[in-house]
Amino acid sequence: MSAKFAVLGHGVVGSGVVELFYKNKKSIEKRAGTEMDIKYILDLRDFPDSPYADKFTKDFNVILNDDEVTSVAECMGGVEPAFTFVKACLEKGKSVSTSNKELVAEKGDILLAAAKEHGCNFFFEASVGGAIPIIRPLHRCLAANDISRVAGILNGTTNFILTKMYNDHMSFADALKLAQELGYAEKDPTADVEGHDACRKICIISSLVFGKHVYPKSVYTKGISQIDLVDVADADILGNAIKLVASVTRLENGKILPAVMPMLVPYENIMSGVNDVFNAVLVYGDGIDQTMFYGRGAGKLPTASAVLGDVIEAVKHNVTVLSQSWESSEDDSFIAPVTEFCARWYFRVPEDKCNCEGAYSDDNGAAFITEEKLTWAEAEAKAKEMNAFAFMPVFQSAS
Question: Which one from 94, 201, 243, 300 is the annotated catalytic residue?
Answer without folding.
Answer: 201
